[in-house]
Write a structure and sequence with these properties.
The chain is of the alpha+beta class. It is built from twelve helices and nine strands. Helices cover about 40% and strands about 20% of the residues. The strands form two sheets. The chain has a seven-stranded mixed beta sheet.
């Protein structure tokens, strides 16, 4: 799988790939690189520099130098086309070299400073670290400002909101949705004691943490969704299936957003670390 925006930010790169290490791959100490993994390896080392056949017959040419994430230690792993037609690319794992990921963990590669880095981590750690990238400690202040008319709250928002969100855009979206939750309009809401209107929260489907990586403005009405507190917490914290369901429904409701940003629903999944990794 190719790196998405979140992984590119995390590893400070423009290109990378990741996938699951199967039990068989761990047992055999070899990974068959496919799709984006194979392309990354071939583009980096050059197809003509990867030998055909077994490692023993091409010891020097098969050995490739990589950097081991996160410290950058130099390691050497063997890479070959085991069959003459070059339809299969095989990377050999090595405990001695320092790279033999455990079964069902995530292994990844990326290019940085003209060097190829490789690493692995357990799936939960992978997802947790990606989730930290879109974490917003000022979210509560922003949401409070939508339901309170107190000017102190608005002033506080301007002082603390690192993403410089415009509350008026969020309020307009909630008004357009007739003060209902966009994921499940049947959800029962309580009224804000300050506005006497149904309490709703504004959610940016494409996280504002990605703003520095795109010239397209993300604090726009197309990217804001009116959600009840339950659904808003769910999209950030629920199990993978529920989070995916919420994202799919919101993305389907506002397809122009994906078109503007040239994204697929699977890209949105990766922003929330709920993508299907294979």
């Amino acid at each position: 799988m190719q790196f998405g925006a979140i992984q590119k930010i995390k590893f400070n790169t423009t290109i990378g790939s990741y996938s699951v290490v199967t039990e068989r791959e761990n047992y055999d100490s070899q990974i068959t690189a496919t799709d984006s993994e194979a392309k990354l390896l071939i583009d980096f080392f050059g197809k003509e520099n990867i030998p055909i056949g077994n490692v023993k017959s091409h010891k020097e040419q098969a050995q490739k130098t990589l950097r081991l994430y996160p410290k950058g230690d130099e390691i050497k792993l063997n890479l070959v086309f085991p069959k003459p037609n070059k339809t299969e690319l095989r990377l050999y794992l090595s405990t001695k070299a320092g790279f033999k990921p455990i079964p069902n963990s995530i292994w990844f590669m990326f290019i940085k400073n003209n060097e190829l880095w490789i690493g692995s981590m357990i799936e939960q750690e992978w997802r947790d670290e990606n989730a930290l990238i879109i974490y917003d400690e000022t979210e509560g202040v922003y949401q409070d400002s939508l339901s309170e008319l107190d000017e102190i709250k608005i002033t506080k928002l301007k002082a603390r909101d690192v993403f410089s969100r415009d509350r008026n855009i969020a309020l307009e979206r909630i008004k357009i949705e007739k003060y209902m939750c966009e994921y499940n309009p049947s959800h029962i809401l309580f009224n804000s004691r300050y506005t006497n209107l149904p309490y709703l929260e504004a959610h940016h489907l494409i996280p504002l943490a990605l703003q520095k990586n795109t010239a397209k403005k993300l604090d726009v009405i197309e990217n804001i969704f009116s959600l009840c507190p339950y659904c808003h917490r769910a999209i950030h914290n629920a199990d993978k299936d529920l989070t995916q369901n919420i994202i799919k429904k919101l993305a389907f409701k506002r397809p122009e957003l994906l078109n503007i940003m040239e994204l697929k629903t699977s890209d949105i999944f990766s922003f929330y670390s709920v993508e299907d990794i294979y």
